[in-house]
Amino acid sequence: MFLYWPDTFNWSWHLLRPIAASVYGGGEFNECYNTAQRIKANDPESWHTEWLRTADHVRELARRAEEAGHIVTAHDHYLRASNYYRWSEAFLDHADARRLPTYDNCVECFQKAGRWFTPALEQVEVPYEKVGAVKRLLRPPEIELAAEEYGAAARLVLAVHEEREGALREALAELGANPLSR
Question: 153: domain range?
Answer without folding.
Answer: 9-181
